[in-house]
Amino acid sequence: MASINEQQLMQEMLTNTKTIAVIGLSDKPYRTSYQIAKAMQHEGYRIIPVNPNVNEVLGEKAYDTILEVKEPFELINIFRRSIYLRELSEKIIKTDANYVWMQQGVEDLSAYDYLTENGKFVIMDRCIKVAHSVLMR
Hints:
The chain is an alpha/beta fold. It has a single domain, classed as NAD(P)-binding Rossmann-like Domain (Rossmann fold, 3-Layer(aba) Sandwich), CATH 3.40.50. Helix content is 36%, strand content 18%. The chain has five helices and seven strands, in the order H-E-H-E-E-E-E-H-E-H-E-H. The chain has a five-stranded parallel beta sheet with strand order 2-1-5-6-7, sandwiched between helices. It is globular. The two termini are 18 Å apart.
């Protein structure tokens, strides 16, 4: 179970976010990333897909990298394998997004430390959809 401070941070992130950039968002409806992004879109969040292998997902133009996204977003949701987190974190710190959410099963303590040392608020190894359904009733 998440600590009280982690729960408070998740609630703050979900409350203060209008747009979520989803790194690794698939255009395949059977993929977890698609299902969760679609659910978050249904909850009123705008979704920006970040995946070089797709052109559009959930009616939104996809970008090859997080650094190519020019429109504002507050939260980055990551659906990539943990081995890519360090490389991704070096790009993420160059964005204006305050929040980074690593999906369940996605974790790297050195990337977490690097992101937090560079001013990002980070949730690691948690499902954003589950957190939303529990914390935002």
